[in-house]
Amino acid sequence: MLNKVATKLAASTFALSLVAAPVMAANYSDWNTDGNDGINESEFRTGFEQNNAFDTWDADDSGTLTQSEIETGVGDNQQAFNDRYGDGWFEEWDADSDSAISEDEYYNGLYTSYDADNNNIIEEPEFGDVGDDMGDGGWFDV
Ligand SMILES: [Ca+2]
Ligand SMILES: [Ca+2]
Ligand SMILES: [Ca+2]
Ligand SMILES: [Ca+2]
């Protein structure tokens, strides 16, 4: 009898700790919702939209990000950011070359950047970089 109560308590404590886990955590199995290996573009966008960096960095609330808005938002992580995406990241992401990154350009650019082998799917090892950049101390941890 006592054992049963203890088991129940342990189970509810476990459930609570799951709820308390940070919403930001980039967990491969949470993001991979369609059962097919790898994170496709729509899974990526759904997962990444839990992250507030785009809105936080958009200092003038224009709905787009200039290079300087991103650089201000990234702050001290600029070097690591450039190393991750390459020095030409802004031009690459700015598909229509209007000197501003729209939300679509942002997600497309990030997706392409994390898909290191360019096979149009983010495999679990590639996804490790997403987790690092969204985790504690990463530039998306805003
Ligand atoms: Ca998938
Ligand atoms: Ca803006
Ligand atoms: Ca643009
Ligand atoms: Ca890939």
TrEMBL record:
It comes from the Bacteria. Keywords: Signal. PROSITE patterns: EF_HAND_1. SUPFAM superfamilies: EF-hand (SSF47473). Residues 1-25 form the signal peptide. This is EF hand. It comes from Pseudorhizobium tarimense.
